[in-house]
Amino acid sequence: MNKFYLSFLFLLLMAAAPALAQQGVIRGTVYDEGTGETLIGATVMAVGTQTGAITDFDGKFEIKLPVGTYSIRFSFAGFETIIIDSVAVTQAEPVVFNNIVMKESVSELGQVVVTAEAIRSSEAVVAITKMKASNLVDGLSAASFEKIGDSNASDAVKRITGVSVEGGKYVYVRGLGDRYTKTILNNVDIPGLDPDRNSIQMDIFPTSLIDNMMVYKTAVAELSADFTGGVVNIETKDLPDDKILDFSLSVTYNPSMHFNSDFIMGNTSSTDFLGFDNGDRALPNGARRENIPSPISGDSNGDVNTFLKGFNKTLGATPQTSFMDYSLSFTSANQFNAGANKLGYIFSLSYKSNSTFYDDVTYGEYQKRVNASDRGLRYATVQNGIESERNVLVGALAGLAYKTENSKYKLMGMHLQNGINNAGQFFIDNDGEAVGQSGYLAYSNNLEYNQRGLTNVLLNGEHHLKDGAWDIDWRVSPTFSKIEDPDVRKTAFTYSNTDTTFSAGAGGNPSRIWRYLEEVNLAGKFDITRNTQAFGRDAKYKFGASYIYKERDYEILSYDLQFFGAQPDFGIDPNRVLQDQNLYPDGTIYYNSANSTPNSNEFNSNSRNLGLYVSTELKPTDKLKAIVGLRGEKYQQRHTGRDVQYAQLGTGNNLEDELVIDDFDLFPSVNLVYAVTEEQNVRLSYSKTIARPSFKELSFAQIIDPLTNRIFNGGLFQYGDWDGQLGVTRINNLDARWEIFLPGSEIISVSAFYKTFEDPIELVRIPEQQTSTEYQPRNVGDGEVLGAEIEFKKDLSFVSDALSNFYVGSNVTIVESRITMTDTEFRSRKAFEKDGEEIDNKRNMAGQAPYIINASLGYENFETGLDAGLFYNVKGSTLFIVGGGLFPDVYAEQFHSLNFNLNKTFGAERNMSFNFSVSNILNDKREEVYRGFETNDQPFTIFSPGMSFGFGFKYSF
After folding, report:
1. Please, which residues bridge with residue 354 across strands?
2. In sequence order, what are the beta bridge partners of 398?
3. What is the mean pLDDT of the chain?
């Protein structure tokens, strides 16, 4: 009998086991409406049960419940209780409430009851964060990404007020260029794939891994001082509330570019599809010798021939059919219990391949006419032709996070690999009547490959001590970058009366260039916050330090094709040039090194930036919040390099670890926020910031673009009245803003800003270089910017309830900028003043658009998972390169960008989404032009990107 009962009990337990195991999880984050910060110690309970949790130092909670439907109660002393009804708990996936906002109660029985669907669709957290922020801030949260359906940060950031995206990946704020806009990752400086930019490209980050993305438009002491327009901070997830297993695929079709048989390419290798060269473009053995093997080097004929055969024989592009743009990504993330603690991981792989083809590219070089009565511009050189590019980007990101009761640790690694293969074919017309020009016609083939690799690691610790009285945050982040331009080739045939030849004084002899860059970036910082009371209200005192070390090695090696005798007949086919029978000693061709010893195009630079700050956040009254801080930065930059004169003659400038910048600056910041009502703020802020020259700018480097023959000169070169002393730019910033926050994410605001620039750095055409097209960064005189900004986003429910899901939004910025010219620039402009023209010593600031217009008309419906919109952006004609003397200014013309985007989610769990987009609906051209006095603009660079259609699919397993 006992065996019978035991067997029956065993079977009963076995039958009950599945039911006992069927549990689900509710997770989320609770915020304090009064501060915009997470709320620690709030109680979360399932009504009618004994199951609940207390929010931790991140405001996060987790409850495990049997499968079923519950009401969840959120309570905190002195705050209104929130009850969420109809919460369905399943075993399949966690229920996530990441936007619970609690506010102080005005009565003892304050209580709010909402539905689960309503709380999920709320964007209150984003609005509260912006409303309560210490400085001017706009942004998007993880909840916003889920709602709008954008697949990567580049697509999403366009929706942030005052932000524009250049080239589909680089962010500009308030129309200020890259020098004055900065991108950081997890609150730490990180260089991008282009180390001379302040911005990392945004299209590498899938939105499923981003916790939030914020744009700071005014300074606070804890931010580095090297920005003016804004700082974009991308914060990645550490402990994802949902299990993520996503796969996405997208394709883009441009009728003028894709499946086009006129697409050209050359200079390829078997690993280009992975973003790096397989060695086919490597520098030949012996090419680094001071006297490379040649007919006059003393090497044997066999050694010379072997050396010449080490060069890749392809010098010309050949037609092939282009494919569509496409991208793939895979993302996985989850969190687990590790005893009483939490362990989470994130992982992402992405692959993108883009092909562009322009069949109407123009590059022009124009001059003013010498006669004061002739207002027209005359061409020096004009190139017309076709240009193709294949761009591959491979990205991998992985991270681990470990969370205890009072601490959190995060380790994240990222690697990016980018390969860009470019080919061009151009007809060149050089006008011998122009100043400094010889006059010729030529046909050129240009082949270029650029590969870039970037590896970044972040180690971060966050600690909360003594019941939240002290917060400590520390971060260490090394980044390693490597960039190569292996074997950039230009082959230009010069037309004569009877045939085509290579002519050094005209189209030039065939040339090859290798460029190498390696950079190390080591960043570390810590921030300590004391949470306390002042004036009977919550207050914070902060202090901290940061240290950034950067070092770069850069080298350019150049080689020119020469003839030891007569030129063979190549026709006009560049791929016949290096055939074996043409190579010395069987033929007359050999290569000559254009590199001096020591190399004038080689340098090492390093910089150290030590920052210290203190700040306080106080509320002297219930309505006024004051954030006052002081930051100090000790910055040193050293350079090892030399100019051409020293390299060739030994009598020029040679720097050995020379201190080229040695500054200590104090950067005060004051942010005042006055709450007119709960929904309205008036903000006033003042700060000092700085812009420093890059390693490339503060060097003796001379970097030629073989495609256009335009040459960049480092700022250390002395020309005429320019003394080679390139310095930093110091900026004063004053901002005022009125803002009102309406339900949801709606906002209306009016802003004004004023900035002064001491010694701004701008790219200037070198007036002394009249036979070649050369530019140089220079301090150009003091400047000022005065601007106004109006922004709004509002649904159309005020027209009709049927239109409540439609919204209109706009951000309009009007800017007046002025530079007071240096005496040198003013005199050079007066020397070429035209009849009827009156030149004073003021002009517009380079890089500052006179106006920016962003406008949107959209539809958002969370219940149906449909999001669609038309987005328009235009920037006014902007001074791009500063002219002077013989050379006119160059302006970037308006590009009217009108794009359509549609996202639709499907499935019971909304685990599928479809995206459709149309870019450049107006089919506008990209134009940079020379501008003279009362005359027609002439081309500097013109190409047509065409209209493109994109299709994307995302599936969450």
Report:
1. 391
2. 347, 413
3. 88
